[in-house]
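Folding problem:
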Amino acid sequence: MKVYLDTIGCRLNQAEIESMARQFRAAGHEIVASAEMADVAVVNTCAVTSAAASDSRGVIRRMARAGVQQIIPTGCWATLRPQEAAALPNVWRVVANDRKDQLVLEILDPQKNASAAFRHPQGHSPGQVFHMPPVARQPLPGLRPRTRSFIKVQDGCNNRCTFCLTTIARGQGRSRGMADVIQDIRSALKGGAKEVVLTGVHLGSWGQEFGLQLRDLVKTVLRETDLPRLRLSSLEPWDLDTEFFFLWEDPRLMPHLHLPLQSGCAATLKRMARKTTPASFRELVSAARDIIPKAAITTDVIAGFPGETEAEFTESLDFVREINFAGGHVFTYSPRPGTAAARMSGQVRPEVRKERNRLLRQALQESANAYRRKVVGLRQPVLWESASGMGERGWQLEGLTGNYLRVKAFAASLRWNEIDVVELTAVEADGDGLKGVIIKSG
């Protein structure tokens, strides 16, 4: 069977689609580069914003136009809107998040699928384990080749942030066993990965069911594998303490922390039901910078949350400027049906939300530019992720430093998935990256 895989949204969705690819290959099926070549297509959908939900529907429609006769939507949007997903053209079956781990097995044995469609994750059932020999991770054809391998270590969330659909779509928090995670990392290494990203909905909660903490998993990965580079995805600030940052004494752990703030206003954070305050967030960032001086700290912020007054927005904007993040994402608040925030009074007018988004993005861009200027002249290892055509100066390479800065440089040979020491020479004219010169090839 020829299978086409696509994904929208977060790194966790990417990790899951890579896992599905390994399972399909282990079962003897072929992963193809385009929907036009496929017998079956699977799309891992997203519902974090209304735009992500729209993108999910669009991908399914494009697959149908490409001629795929059997399309399987899974993921958050498909879980929350199963009837709507099932009504789209050429949808064969809808697999909710609580059945996603068994998706490949159920395709191979359709008799097991009769009750799988349209189920809603009001809890987690382990279900059947997919018993097949592990295979080495390979890049997914048809998608941008990735040097980083995303490894899912946790799913679901027990937090009740009032704007978030994740708890509804993903169910309660649960952790994968350490042995399974190590096995996946070793498979990724066999497939040529130079960097692994540990990811989850609520990554910092990993291990709570086992009496362990995320730091235990990180230490084990670094001790039991020869992984060149390990990176952590988004971490909620309330899961961390000063001791956590001493993990970065191992240089293989990449110095980048993504800490979602969502608002720099204490009153807004309370309405969001976030377990942090501006004061505690400031203290945490200060500790991280003291212990990991080279760390890039990035964030997420929501513009125009219900009830956000001009004074509250100004407080949030001022706090974002004060922290001097190395970058971040700004999301214009959009009401998500089923969330507490969608029912709140004081919904901010769309044009006001849009303007607040612009001001927050401007503030983050200014601090990101300042961070990039500070590293000009330094030498840092870069993992090359892509290359454009050969020219007079050689191949133009593009990759990431450990602190998640995008770098371009020229090389005489194609260096994809290699790590080189690069001297950072200038900030790109558009401000979104850096120029560099390769000093030492890995």
Notes: The chain has twelve helices and 17 strands. The chain has three domains: 2-113, 148-373, 379-441. Confidence is low (pLDDT under 50) at residues 111-145.
